[in-house]
């Protein structure tokens, strides 16, 4: 809605329903699917998202086709990422210290929030976008999940 309003594009509830229905059929990048499968052989896979929990379960089961060790929605926190409470909640739920968790994302704001909260961070920068200047830089920057797996030796 924010983008539609920002671009001054008129919309109604029916328009939003169409967009939200399309989200159910998103096609993940092949390198992400392959990379997640490889990473899952060595690491616990946790989905931490601003999406609603039912939707994340749907994506995991019908689009990503992987069994995640945990799926965490911000619904449980009442804040959206990159708010620090989201990352603190995840750390507590997983019974891990923040520095034992690596956030992997293809957008910088999530890595910035995770690093600020003490997580490690891997930025899959598939479009070679600039990273926000900050002291909270990613531990790893790669152009794809393939290179991330190579870097992590999986």
Q: Classify the beta-strand content into a percent band.
A: 5-15%
CATH homologous superfamily identity: HAD superfamily/HAD-like
Fold-level CATH name? Rossmann fold
What structural class do the secondary elements suggest? Answer: alpha/beta
State the share of residues found in helices, binned by percent.
Answer: 40-55%
The major β-sheet equals: 3 strands, parallel
Give the total of beta strands.
Answer: 5
How large is the radius of gyration? 16 Å
- Give average pLDDT, whole number: 94
What would you say this structure looks like, in words?
- The chain has helices at 2-6, 13-23, 30-42, 53-64, 84-94, 108-116, 145-151; strands spanning 46-49, 70-73, 102-105, 120-124, 140-142.
- With 154 residues, the protein is α/β, with parallel strands linked by helices.
- The protein has one domain (28-151): Rossmann fold, CATH 3.40.50.
- The strands form two sheets. A three-stranded parallel β-sheet has the order 3-4-5, sandwiched between helices. Strands 1-2 form a two-stranded parallel sheet.
- The longest helix is centred in the N-terminal third of the chain and has 13 residues, at 30-42.
- It is globular, with a radius of gyration of 16 Å.
Task: Please sum up the structure shown.
The protein is built from 7 helices and 5 strands, in the order αααβαβαβαββα.
Helix-strand blueprint:
Layout: H1 2-6, H2 13-23, H3 30-42, E1 46-49, H4 53-64, E2 70-73, H5 84-94, E3 102-105, H6 108-116, E4 120-124, E5 140-142, H7 145-151
Parallel strand pairs: 1-2, 3-4, 4-5
């Amino acid at each position: 809605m924010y983008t539609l309003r920002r671009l001054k594009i008129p919309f109604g509830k029916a328009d939003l329903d169409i967009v939200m229905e399309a989200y159910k059929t998103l096609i993940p990048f092949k390198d992400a699917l392959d990379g997640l499968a490889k990473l899952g052989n060595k690491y616990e896979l946790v989905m931490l998202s601003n999406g609603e929990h039912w939707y994340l379960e749907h994506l995991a089961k019908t689009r990503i086709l992987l069994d995640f060790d945990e799926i965490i929605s911000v619904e449980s926190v009442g804040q959206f990422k990159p708010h620090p409470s989201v990352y603190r909640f995840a750390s507590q739920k997983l019974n891990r210290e923040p520095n034992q968790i690596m956030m992997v994302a293809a957008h910088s704001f999530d890595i910035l929030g995770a690093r600020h909260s003490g997580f490690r961070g891997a930025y899959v920068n598939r479009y070679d976008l600039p990273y926000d200047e900050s002291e909270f830089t990613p531990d790893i920057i790669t152009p794809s999940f393939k290179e991330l797996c190579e870097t992590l030796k999986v």
